[in-house]
Design the sequence.
């Protein structure tokens, strides 16, 4: 019986560490297929856009930057992220970036196997629960640990990724929290042209923005002096979405 393989890209600016990780994955994680490797942020971005892997194994300190910068510059990020690093101080931030696991260097084989299996489990779980609605909804079901609340889309200003949770910011300045992640809501909103993902952290209601500020970077500006950044790799897509080009 053939084992289903899940595609992965590995990124580490140390070539020796990169090769060790590739060997470990190929030898011990039989459900992972390494389809690309990169030692720089630019190469990693190019590989990601070309190959669209299901999992990213990322060292945190890369070149003169870090993996968080890399993630911020990936368009339509849908991969599960496993950080592989000797810098445990970044573990909390890794959670905020919805990492499925954090493997400490030097790599313990059992830790890597467990992280790979968690990534695969999340992929399979998401594939079962993410379904595009057949009709355009005017509300979202917000599931928390205590209740399910129906939220009118007309009241929603923006959605914000917060680790494995999603924060919903409303017109009346109230906030709702869901125990589902932002990618799931992106799928549910995918047939609604009023909503657009401007950043790995934010989906905005285009009806709520006042303008797009291009003087110091690109930001969407709302009422009450609220502004949210537009990721560089999403700027052209937003312009096309707004029929400005």
Sequence:
């Amino acid at each position: 019986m053939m084992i289903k393989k899940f595609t992965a890209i590995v990124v580490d600016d140390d070539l020796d560490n990169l090769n060790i990780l590739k060997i470990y994955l190929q030898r011990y994680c039989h459900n992972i297929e390494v389809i690309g490797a990169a030692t720089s942020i630019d190469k990693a971005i190019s590989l990601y856009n070309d190959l669209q892997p299901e999992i990213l194994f990322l060292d945190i300190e890369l070149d003169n930057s870090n993996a968080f910068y890399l993630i911020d510059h990936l368009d339509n990020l849908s991969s599960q992220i496993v950080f592989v690093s000797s810098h445990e101080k970044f573990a909390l931030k890794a959670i905020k970036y919805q990492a499925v696991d954090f493997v400490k260097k030097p790599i313990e084989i059992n830790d890597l196997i467990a992280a790979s299996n968690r990534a695969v489990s999340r992929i399979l779980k998401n594939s079962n629960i993410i379904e595009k609605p057949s009709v355009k909804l005017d509300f979202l079901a917000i599931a928390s640990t205590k209740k399910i609340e129906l939220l009118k889309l007309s009241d929603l200003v923006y959605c914000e990724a917060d680790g494995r949770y999603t924060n919903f910011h409303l017109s009346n300045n109230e906030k709702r929290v869901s125990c589902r992640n932002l990618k799931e809501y992106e799928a549910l909103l995918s047939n609604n042209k009023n909503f657009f993902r401007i950043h790995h952290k934010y989906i905005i209601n285009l009806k709520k923005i006042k303008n797009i500020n291009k003087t110091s970077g690109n930001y969407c500006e709302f009422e009450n002096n609220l502004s949210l950044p537009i990721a560089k790799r999403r700027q052209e897509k937003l312009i096309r979405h707004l029929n400005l080009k």
Residues 157 and 173 are 9 Å apart (CA to CA). The mean pLDDT is 86. The first helix runs from residue 15 to 28.
